[in-house]
Design goal:
By secondary structure, this protein is an all-alpha fold. It has one domain. Helix content is about 75%, strand content about 0%. The longest helix is centred in the first third of the chain and has 24 residues. Belongs to the YggT family. It holds the Pfam family CCB3_YggT. It comes from Paenibacillus auburnensis.
């Protein structure tokens, strides 16, 4: 069971850093338009877009939806750990 929990944690960390890098790439002009930016966009944007539709930017420019998305992802990982503990003991 520890192996499954380790895999879940590794996958969460990878996706967390993908979201973080994607957010930081928005601060640098034209960085999202290279290969890595487009790849990250295809992997991260489907998860972030529902949060962007629900949570409007603050003051018209500050987008807090990625922060909420990361918090929700963390709760989902915690729930997944609970399910794995119930199934595998």
């Amino acid at each position: 069971m520890n192996e499954i929990s380790s895999i879940i944690n590794i996958l969460f960390q990878i996706y967390y850093y993908m979201i973080l890098i994607y957010i930081l790439m928005s601060w640098l002009p034209n960085l999202r338009e290279n290969f890595i930016g487009e790849l990250l966009g295809k992997l991260v944007e489907p998860y972030l877009s529902p949060f962007r539709r629900i949570i409007p930017p603050l003051f018209g420019t500050i987008d807090i939806s990625p922060i909420i998305a990361i918090i929700v992802l963390r709760f989902a990982v915690g729930g997944l750990h609970s399910i794995v503990n119930l199934i595998f003991g």
